[in-house]
Automatic annotation (TrEMBL):
Record lineage: Bacteria, Pseudomonadati, Pseudomonadota, Alphaproteobacteria, Acetobacterales
Protein name: 3-dehydroquinate dehydratase
Role: Catalyzes a trans-dehydration via an enolate intermediate.
Pathway named in the protein's UniProt entry: Metabolic intermediate biosynthesis; chorismate biosynthesis; chorismate from D-erythrose 4-phosphate and phosphoenolpyruvate: step 3/7
Subunit: Homododecamer.
Protein source organism: Acidiphilium cryptum (strain JF-5)
Catalysed reaction equations from the record: 3-dehydroquinate = 3-dehydroshikimate + H2O
Active site: 25 (proton acceptor), 102 (proton donor)
HAMAP family to which the protein is assigned, alphabetical: AroQ (MF_00169)
Amino acid sequence: MPVPLIAVLNGPNLNMLGLREPEIYGIQTLDDLEALCAEAAEELGLAIDFRQTNGEGELITWVQECRGRAAGIIINPAGYSHTSIALMDSLHAVDLPVIEVHLSNIHQREAFRHHSYVSQAARGVICGLGFTGYRLALQAIAEIVEQEA
Ligand code: DQA
Protein backbone atom coordinates (compact mmCIF):
# COMPACT_ATOMS: atom_id res chain seq x y z
CA MET A 1 0.00 0.00 0.00
CA PRO A 2 1.47 3.41 -0.91
CA VAL A 3 1.86 5.93 1.91
CA PRO A 4 -1.09 8.37 1.74
CA LEU A 5 -0.08 11.95 0.94
CA ILE A 6 -1.70 14.72 3.00
CA ALA A 7 -1.39 18.36 1.95
CA VAL A 8 -0.91 20.67 4.93
CA LEU A 9 -1.69 24.12 3.54
CA ASN A 10 -1.18 27.36 5.43
CA GLY A 11 -2.52 30.73 4.41
CA PRO A 12 -1.45 34.34 4.76
CA ASN A 13 0.73 35.65 7.57
CA LEU A 14 1.46 32.21 8.98
CA ASN A 15 5.04 32.70 7.73
CA MET A 16 5.19 35.30 10.53
CA LEU A 17 4.60 32.77 13.31
CA GLY A 18 6.95 33.42 16.21
CA LEU A 19 7.00 37.17 15.48
CA ARG A 20 3.33 37.85 14.91
CA GLU A 21 1.13 38.58 17.95
CA PRO A 22 2.93 36.00 20.12
CA GLU A 23 0.33 36.43 22.87
CA ILE A 24 -2.18 34.87 20.42
CA TYR A 25 -0.08 32.61 18.20
CA GLY A 26 2.84 31.70 20.47
CA ILE A 27 6.58 32.00 19.94
CA GLN A 28 7.19 28.97 17.78
CA THR A 29 7.83 29.42 14.08
CA LEU A 30 6.37 27.94 10.89
CA ASP A 31 9.52 25.78 10.62
CA ASP A 32 8.78 24.43 14.11
CA LEU A 33 5.22 23.67 12.99
CA GLU A 34 6.47 21.87 9.88
CA ALA A 35 8.84 19.78 12.03
CA LEU A 36 6.00 18.83 14.39
CA CYS A 37 3.81 17.83 11.44
CA ALA A 38 6.61 15.82 9.81
CA GLU A 39 7.20 13.90 13.04
CA ALA A 40 3.49 13.25 13.62
CA ALA A 41 3.01 12.17 10.00
CA GLU A 42 5.85 9.70 10.20
CA GLU A 43 4.38 8.16 13.34
CA LEU A 44 1.01 7.88 11.62
CA GLY A 45 2.36 6.41 8.38
CA LEU A 46 1.51 9.47 6.29
CA ALA A 47 3.54 11.58 3.89
CA ILE A 48 2.96 15.33 4.01
CA ASP A 49 3.37 18.21 1.61
CA PHE A 50 3.60 21.22 3.96
CA ARG A 51 3.26 24.67 2.37
CA GLN A 52 2.49 28.31 3.18
CA THR A 53 1.48 31.15 0.90
CA ASN A 54 0.24 34.69 1.30
CA GLY A 55 -1.66 34.52 -1.99
CA GLU A 56 -5.31 33.54 -2.27
CA GLY A 57 -4.92 32.42 -5.90
CA GLU A 58 -1.87 30.33 -5.09
CA LEU A 59 -3.67 28.66 -2.19
CA ILE A 60 -6.59 27.83 -4.50
CA THR A 61 -4.21 26.42 -7.15
CA TRP A 62 -2.56 24.23 -4.52
CA VAL A 63 -5.97 22.96 -3.39
CA GLN A 64 -6.92 22.14 -7.01
CA GLU A 65 -3.62 20.29 -7.51
CA CYS A 66 -4.52 17.96 -4.62
CA ARG A 67 -7.22 16.31 -6.72
CA GLY A 68 -5.96 12.90 -7.79
CA ARG A 69 -2.67 13.48 -5.98
CA ALA A 70 -3.40 13.76 -2.25
CA ALA A 71 -5.56 11.61 0.03
CA GLY A 72 -6.68 14.58 2.13
CA ILE A 73 -6.12 18.22 3.02
CA ILE A 74 -5.39 19.94 6.31
CA ILE A 75 -5.75 23.67 5.87
CA ASN A 76 -5.29 26.73 8.02
CA PRO A 77 -6.74 29.32 5.64
CA ALA A 78 -5.89 32.13 8.11
CA GLY A 79 -7.59 35.40 7.09
CA TYR A 80 -9.08 33.85 3.92
CA SER A 81 -11.27 31.64 6.13
CA HIS A 82 -13.48 34.60 6.77
CA THR A 83 -13.56 36.08 3.27
CA SER A 84 -12.97 33.57 0.50
CA ILE A 85 -15.89 31.94 -1.26
CA ALA A 86 -13.41 30.99 -4.01
CA LEU A 87 -11.27 29.01 -1.57
CA MET A 88 -14.37 27.24 -0.23
CA ASP A 89 -15.40 26.39 -3.81
CA SER A 90 -11.97 24.92 -4.57
CA LEU A 91 -12.18 22.69 -1.48
CA HIS A 92 -15.60 21.43 -2.58
CA ALA A 93 -14.25 20.84 -6.08
CA VAL A 94 -11.43 18.50 -5.07
CA ASP A 95 -13.75 16.04 -3.34
CA LEU A 96 -11.27 15.05 -0.63
CA PRO A 97 -11.52 14.95 3.17
CA VAL A 98 -10.64 18.41 4.49
CA ILE A 99 -9.84 19.37 8.07
CA GLU A 100 -9.71 23.07 8.90
CA VAL A 101 -7.32 24.14 11.64
CA HIS A 102 -6.87 27.44 13.47
CA LEU A 103 -4.22 27.99 16.08
CA SER A 104 -6.37 30.42 18.03
CA ASN A 105 -9.94 29.96 19.20
CA ILE A 106 -11.64 32.07 16.52
CA HIS A 107 -14.91 32.01 18.49
CA GLN A 108 -13.33 33.84 21.41
CA ARG A 109 -12.03 36.59 19.17
CA GLU A 110 -13.55 39.43 17.13
CA ALA A 111 -17.01 38.73 15.65
CA PHE A 112 -15.66 38.84 12.07
CA ARG A 113 -13.59 35.72 12.84
CA HIS A 114 -16.56 33.70 14.03
CA HIS A 115 -17.66 32.73 10.53
CA SER A 116 -15.49 30.66 8.20
CA TYR A 117 -16.54 29.95 4.60
CA VAL A 118 -14.03 27.10 4.60
CA SER A 119 -15.95 25.28 7.34
CA GLN A 120 -18.70 24.62 4.77
CA ALA A 121 -16.24 22.40 2.91
CA ALA A 122 -14.54 20.84 5.93
CA ARG A 123 -15.21 17.44 7.45
CA GLY A 124 -14.10 18.85 10.78
CA VAL A 125 -12.70 21.99 12.36
CA ILE A 126 -10.13 22.26 15.14
CA CYS A 127 -9.40 25.62 16.73
CA GLY A 128 -7.80 27.05 19.82
CA LEU A 129 -5.28 24.28 20.49
CA GLY A 130 -2.21 25.85 18.90
CA PHE A 131 0.20 23.45 17.21
CA THR A 132 -1.55 20.50 18.89
CA GLY A 133 -4.47 21.14 16.53
CA TYR A 134 -2.32 20.15 13.55
CA ARG A 135 -1.23 16.94 15.26
CA LEU A 136 -4.86 16.08 16.03
CA ALA A 137 -5.88 16.92 12.46
CA LEU A 138 -3.22 14.54 11.12
CA GLN A 139 -4.48 11.83 13.48
CA ALA A 140 -8.07 12.39 12.35
CA ILE A 141 -7.23 12.40 8.66
CA ALA A 142 -5.18 9.20 9.03
CA GLU A 143 -8.28 7.50 10.47
CA ILE A 144 -10.57 8.92 7.78
CA VAL A 145 -8.23 7.84 4.97
CA GLU A 146 -7.90 4.35 6.43
CA GLN A 147 -11.67 3.97 6.93
CA GLU A 148 -12.47 5.18 3.44
CA ALA A 149 -9.74 3.26 1.58
C1 DQA B 1 -5.96 31.92 12.27
C2 DQA B 1 -7.17 32.74 12.73
C3 DQA B 1 -7.57 33.75 11.67
O1 DQA B 1 -8.69 34.50 12.10
C4 DQA B 1 -6.44 34.69 11.41
O2 DQA B 1 -6.76 35.58 10.36
C5 DQA B 1 -5.14 34.01 11.14
C6 DQA B 1 -4.80 32.81 11.88
C7 DQA B 1 -5.45 30.97 13.39
O3 DQA B 1 -4.69 30.06 13.06
O4 DQA B 1 -5.79 31.14 14.55
O5 DQA B 1 -4.33 34.51 10.38
O6 DQA B 1 -6.35 31.12 11.17
